[in-house]
Design a protein that fits this description.
single chain, alpha/beta, Alpha/beta knot, eight-stranded mixed β-sheet, 8 strands, globular
Length: 202
């Protein structure tokens, strides 16, 4: 089974578990975006995508950087609403971290690794930077890889130094369409393309 990794870089998202679940969009630094992103990575109509891993690389205050990993193969306690994902993120951000992965709840882990360390650790067959000015994803070689990684920014976009790091590594720059979309919508469109490929629809 192919493995799909999705990485969201949250430039303002809180990095400690001190925020209120009632204020994900404000006091938590737009963690509402991350919650919708997580849900879009995993939820089908009546099940979860078990071959997906979702990484939230958070750069906001007070303890950046932190990365929260949701691993579909082992994930539990995630329900299709923002508060559910927010609660799991909040618990993960309350765990003491180093550069390795510390387990928070089943299928949820947290690390203090840098962006460069995260990208190095992923090491997938095919890595993509999703960007409005990228090439059409439908012209890419997605079907040739067993593990694919898709990286995208939040409402502020990917910070320039991080984008430069990816481009220097030769990462492909692709787009899902001609319009500017929310991160969670991009995930749905990418997964639809992958589903179509797997089913032989294109």
């Amino acid at each position: 089974m192919k493995v799909y990794n999705f990485v969201l870089v949250g430039t303002t998202m809180c990095t400690a578990g001190e925020f209120s679940l009632n204020d994900l969009a404000g006091g938590a630094g737009r963690l509402d975006i991350a919650c919708r992103f997580v849900n879009s990575c995993f939820f089908l109509s009546h099940s979860l995508r078990r071959n997906v891993r979702c990484y939230l690389h958070l750069l906001g205050e007070p303890e950046p950087p932190k990365t929260v990993l949701f691993e579909g193969a082992n994930l539990r306690y995630l329900n299709p609403d923002e508060r559910s994902a927010g609660s799991l993120i909040k618990k993960a951000l309350s765990v003491d971290v180093g550069e390795g992965w510390a387990r928070s709840t089943p299928g949820v882990y947290v690390s203090g690794m840098t962006f460069a360390q995260l990208i190095e650790a992923l090491g997938s067959d095919f890595m993509v930077l999703l960007s409005e000015d990228g090439a059409d994803i439908r012209t890419s070689r997605l079907s040739a890889s067993d593990e694919l990684t898709f990286i995208l920014g939040d409402h502020r976009g990917l910070p320039a130094p991080l984008e430069q790091h990816l481009l220097e590594r030769g990462v492909d720059k692709l787009s899902v369409g001609p319009l500017s979309l929310h991160a969670d919508h991009c995930v749905v469109l990418v997964l639809n393309e992958l589903d179509r490929l797997e089913a032989g629809w294109r």
